[in-house]
Each structure stands twice: as structure tokens, then as C-alpha cells.
Amino acid sequence: MTTDVQGSASSDSMLRDPRVRAIFYQILVIVLIVLFVAYVGHNTAINLEKRGIASGFNFLSQPSGFGIGIVLLMDYSSQTSTHLDVLIIGIINTLAVSLSGIFLATIIGFIFGVLRLSKNWVVNKIAAVYIEVIRNIPLLVQLMFWYFAVLSVLPLVGDSIRFGESFFINNRGVNFPAIIPSNGFWVIPVTLLVAIVLSIIIGKWARRRQDLTGQPFPVFLTSLALIIILPVIATLVMGSPFTMSYPEFGRFSITGGWSLEPEFLALLLGLSIYTGAFIAEIVRSGINSVSHGQTEAAHSLGVRPGMTMRLVILPQALRVIVPPLTSQYLNLTKNSSLATAIGYADITAIFAGTSLNQTGQAIEVIFITMLFYLVISLLISMFMNWYNKRIALVER
Amino acid sequence: MKKASFIAVATAATFMATAATAATLDDVKAKGFIQCGVTTGLAGFAAPNNDGQWEGFDVDFCRAMAAAIFADPGKVKYTPTTAKERFTALQSGEIDVLARNTTWTFSRDVNLGFEFVGVNYYDGQGFMVKKALGVKSALELDGARVCVQSGTTTELNLADYFTANGMKYDSVVFDTADEVREAYLKDTCDVYTTDQSGLYAQRSVIADPEAHIVLPEVISKEPLGPLVRHGDNQWGDIARWTLNAMIEGEELNISSANVDDLKANTKNPSIQRILGVNGDLGQQLGLSNDWAYNIIKMVGNYGESFARNLGEGTALNIARGLNAQWNKGGILYSPPLR
After folding, report:
1. CA-nearest residue of chain A to B86?
2. What is the pLDDT of residue A10?
3. Closest Cα in chain B, distance from residue A131 (Å)
């Protein structure tokens, strides 16, 4: 080795060199970790083989054989679909409830965070009670509450609460008319996309114009008009390229139309109201972190309170809000795995639950499930870090 | 140097860890009790009574094993498992035996690495609906919402049955039988499906059992039985012959009431063998020779256990049906103990 060549005196001094010792200890730690992992893996493999338990990922191509309550965006049949399809459906269902939950929780959180700072005593206290009560009850209990105590005591299907002819609320969820695409339907989403792109361009143009000339432009109203009017025109031009499917009373439940299942609703409500309370506190602390002098300065310039909040306070508060907000989004996504308690078909319930049980391959299934949650959490983190950088204070 | 000794330790630990799984009987004797996996609560099969003691048909099997090994049916610790957790619990060695109305299937026996030791209850999957729906047959269930427990053969049979009959259904899947019952009672779903014994058990704890009807169709074979891990044949033998001793006991009319009398006075060589008066069946299993005597004396024969937990007069009120002895119209048939 190189140390021997340099003679005993220098190797003695190298032993005392803190840098060499640091490297030695790091190598030692790595070797220990590698050995530990190898030992665990080896031991597991031996024991699996000893007990004749199958291993490997072949089970993913085996037919699943069981039914799934909620299937979005995919065709699923218990006879032909595989455990891989179950995994994909689980991922879609988890993403569906997490993303809608994040959206709803953010709205709830911002509203109650602002209300919590209201000078109106009643409004302020209502927000305080919401935040304190919700934050201090375990999420699982709240999910049970929404599912078993709220949604399942709604009227039975026969006595559904009706809004108009084809919008029903009952203990099997919410039913409303569905849009069934026919020939030429693609034009409508495409025009919607065009409208959104146009709105973004107009927004940028308006900002540049305001910077140059000081003239404001009604960006919000223009964008709203574009987003509504363009698809409507497309629909009329194409001669309504879709048919409607209306919910109707069947032998057991309501058939036809679209429906939101009570399992999904309970999970969505539970997750977003719970996380919303935490976000409200984050928003409140973010707003409080902006010096009161800013508000006074804006007011003295004659800026109205609403605009002060929107244009002066929130942009500065966001810098404080976004990092903890990220961890709330991650919490919400991970908490969605409690779905299994109320029968929602998320990845934990159907893949790490039923598929695991039917195939018995606990290690592979749990590994895939953990990998999914890890990847999705890292993606959310990456996106929020990108957003955080964008809104960070630009020092001149 | 350090590294070398670590490898030595690690290798030794590997060998120890793998060797330790071999003799379950020795492990059980050393710790002084059997760790038995049961349901999280299913009336008649395994549920804690008012004093917090587990009792039921499956619990009796655990107690019988303890009686055979320790001559004390109380030396059992119970691990409540959901249908989903049960297999992992047994695979990982958390429990020594699983007695949890589990259906014996090919893939569970072969692919999951288990050893089913026999059948203690012949069952079949059925459907329960509310009488008010006016449904008379399972073939009328097209479009229904079905509540089902996850991780069961029930889920698979359900899909098969509806596909075979060209019907559609929505499944709502829960972890425990109690959650399924709760959702069914709250009318979140129209149908509750599980093994018929489970339906009767659940109906027995519903406030108004008369308002619910179990449909006549039985859509599957569900041979329920206890199981152990692959790879320890001695332990598998003890479990298998504990069950057979209870069944054989009923066939030979040996009950907890007359077992002492028979042991002292019988001239029947079959009874003498099973009670350990003659032969060394117990020693062949690695137990004492009065193992089967202890089972029948302390827990009872199969018929006694059935009558106490499931039979007529209990809340479940299940007829023996398929579960009668082979010479009494059923299919219960123990290989001879000789």
C-alpha cells in the first residue's frame, strides 16, 4: 500500500492526521452499512427459500382476480387485468385524492389563515376554534367521523336530496350528469388549452406594459372571458360533440352519470380539512412575519386593504409560507394511505393490501409501495423548491 | 482485523437466525405458551367474552394444542389478526399457528409457504341482504354495491361469480369484519358477502337479525382450517393430529364427561390407543402419551366444541350439515389414530 512506501515515521504521523482518520472512519461506516444490508438481504433470501415462499416480480403479470370499487381512466376486469394494473389503479387513485386534497386544503388554509387575523372578533374566533379543534384530533378518527358519522347518515338512495332533475346527494355519494365524448370532442380541450396559453401571454404582456407605461390592464377578467368563451364557441361550431348521461334510479343504486363515491368524499374532506388547519397556522405566521409597517405604508399610499393583502403582504409572506407548506403537502399525500380504514381503493389498500395478501409477496409489494411514496414525495418537494426559488427575494 | 471479526459475527448470526426457525415445538416449550393467530373478533369463532377471555371454535383449537403440549389449555397467547395481516404474521414467525377461519387453497398452501393441517369447518360463500330489498336470489344482484373484507378468498369468488353470471357490482373493501358490518348496516352497501358461517356470526350480533336474510346461493367451496409454516413437519404433525384427535374423539364417543371413565375401563383398543393407555402415539409426536386425553378432557371433542360455540342453542344456531361425522351424513372424516 502507499503508506508503506513512505516509511514508518510518516505512517505514524498519518495515523495522527485528522483528515486521514476522518476518511478512515467514513470508510468504516460505509463498510458496516454495506455489511449490514448484505446480511439482512442474505438472511431474508435464505429464510424465504427455506419456507418455500415465492420471490421475484413475476406476480405483477399474474391476473389479479378481485374487483376494485373505484377505477379511473382505465379499463379493469378482474379476469384479465394483472397485479400491475392494480398497482397503476392504486397509484391513480392515490394521486387523485392527494392532488384534489392539496388543492382544497390550500384554499381552506389560506382562507382560514387570513380569517384568523381578522379584526372581527366573531370571524377571528370561528377560525381559531376550527384550527384548534381540527389540529388536535387524530386524522384517522376524523376520517371515521366523516365516513361513518356524516356521509353514511345522509338520506338513503330512494330519498336522495335533489338539486334539479339530475343532481343527487345520498349516502352512496354524489351523483351528477356525465359528459360522454363523441366524434370531434377533442376540439374542446384543445381550445381550452389555447385559451389558457393566451391568458398567460396576455398576463406577461400586461405586466410589461404596466412597467413601461403604468397603465393597468384587466388581465383576470380578460382571461376568464377567454377561458369560458373559446370552448363555448368550439362547442357550438362542432355542434355539441358529446352526449349527456343522466343519473337514474336503478334497482339498487343510481346508475348512469358520474358519481363521487362516499369513500372518496370522506377521505378528501378528512384530509383537506385536517391539513387545511395546519396550513392556516402557517399562513397566519407567514403574514405575521411581514412587518406591520408595510401595511401602514400601503394604506398611507391609498392602497385598499384587499389589494394591500394581495399585492404587498402575501408576496412577502409566501417566502415564509412555502417551505413549511411543502411539508404539509407531503403529509397530506402520505396520510392518504389511511384510506384503507374507510374502504377507498388507494395504493395501500388494494396493492399493499389485497394484492400482497393474494400473492403473499410482502417484501416486493411493500418495497414497490414505499418506492412510490418516496418518488411522489420527492417530486412534490422538487416542485415546491422550484416555486420557492422563483418567489424568493431577488437581491439587487 | 475489526472487519474480519465483524464478518465472523455476521456469518454466525446468519446461521443462528436460520437454525432457530427449525424446531417450533422446542421454541414453544421454552417460552411456555403457544402464540396463536385468531380473528380480530368473529362471534362463535374467536372473540373475547365479557371477562376479556378469548373463546370460540377456532380458539378451542388453540386451547387443544396447548392441552396436548402443556396439559394446560390456558397456555395460549392470542394475536388478533385481520384477514390481510394473518399470512405475514405467520410467515414472519410472529405467531406459531393460525386458527382463523382461513380457506385452504392451492396458492396459499404452495406459493405462500404454508401447511394446512386439515379442515375444521366446511363452509361456502354466501350473501346477506336486507329483507326490505325483496331480493330472493343472488342472481338478482346485478348493479349492487357489495361490502367485502379485504385479503380474503371472498374477494376473488365474488369477482368470479359476478363475471360468470354477466353481472356488474361495486365492491367496497374494508380491513376488519366489524367495519364491513358497520358499513352494511349503515346501508353504504346493499350486500354483505363472506363465508356463510361468518354471515350467521355477524347476523347474531346485529340488533335486528330478522330484518336480514342470507340468500340460498353458496358460490364457493370454503374449507376452513388451521395452518402452520412450511418446513417444520413435527410442528405440522402436532397441529394436524390435535385436530384429528378432536374429530376422532367425537366419532368414538369420547367426550370430556366420560373420558376418565373410558380411560380406566374401556376394552376398545382404538380408544385405548388414542387415550394413551396402549401404544406410544404421543411419544411419536414428541409429546406425552396422554396428549389426546388432555385435549378431550380439557377442551372437549369436535362435537362438544361445535355445540358450545356454533351449534343449535347458541346465538349462531348453525346446523352441523357438512360438518357432521362421515357416518352421520357429513364429510368429517379423520384418518385413524394408530
Report:
1. A357
2. 56
3. 29
Query: What part of A 277-336 touches B (C-beta under 8 Å)?
Result: none
Do the domain assignments include residue B94? yes
Contact B141, B170 (CB under 8 A): no
CA distances B123 to B60, B126, B196, B331, Å, are 18, 9, 7, 12
Chain B neighbours among A 173-232 (CB < 8 Å)?
A: none
Q: Provide the number of structural domains found in chain A.
A: 2
- Looking up residue A294, the CATH number of its domain turns out to be 1.10.3720.10
Nearest to B187 among A156, A251, A356 (CB): A156
- In this structure, which amino acid lies at residue A66? F
Same domain for A287 and A367? yes
Report CA Rg, chain A. 28
Do B253 and B284 have their domain in common?
Answer: yes
pLDDT band at A77, cuts 50/70/90? confident
Can you give the pTM of this predicted structure? Answer: 0.79
Nearest residue of chain A to residue B1 (CA atoms): A28
Same domain? For B66 and B136 the reply is no
Domain ranges, residue A37? 2-50
User: Do B104 and B48 belong together in one domain?
Assistant: yes
Q: What is the pLDDT of residue B15?
A: 44
Indicate whether B11 belongs to any domain: no
Q: Does residue B303 have a pLDDT over 70?
A: yes
Q: Which of A186-190, A390-394, B112-116, B133-137 has the lowest mean pLDDT?
A: A390-394
Comparing alpha-carbon positions, the chain B residue that sits nearest to A345 is B173
Q: A166 and A41, same structural domain? A: no
The overall average pLDDT reported for chain A is 88
- For residue range B317-336, what is the model confidence (pLDDT) as tens digits? 888 989 999 999 999 999 99
Q: Is A255 left (phi over 0), alpha (psi -120 to 50) or beta?
A: beta
State the CB neighbour count (10 A cutoff) for residue A296. 11
Q: Is residue B196 located within the same domain as residue B51? A: no
**Count of domains observed in chain B:** 2
Q: Report the gap between the CA of A354 and the closest CA in chain B (Å).
A: 5
**Between residues B128 and A3, the one the model is more confident about:** B128
**Which chain B residues are closer than 8 Å to A262 by Cβ?**
188
Chain B 274-303, residues with CB within 8 Å of chain A CB atoms = none
What is the pLDDT, as a whole number, of residue B14? 45
- More confident site: B117 or A315: B117
- The three cell numbers of residue B110 are 404452495
Residue B143 contacts A where some CB pair is shorter than 8 Å: yes
Q: What is the DSSP string of A61-97?
A: GSB--S--S---SS---TTT-BHHHHHHHHHHHHHHH
Residues A135 and A13 in one domain: no
Q: Which domain holds residue B259?
A: 25-122+223-318
pLDDT at B1: 38
Q: Cβ separation of B144 and A31 shorter than 8 Å? A: no
Q: Is residue A167 part of a domain?
A: yes
Interchain contact, A53 vs B186, CB within 8 Å: no
A75 touches chain B (CB under 8 A): no
The rounded distance, in Å, linking the Cα atoms of A241 and A234 is 10
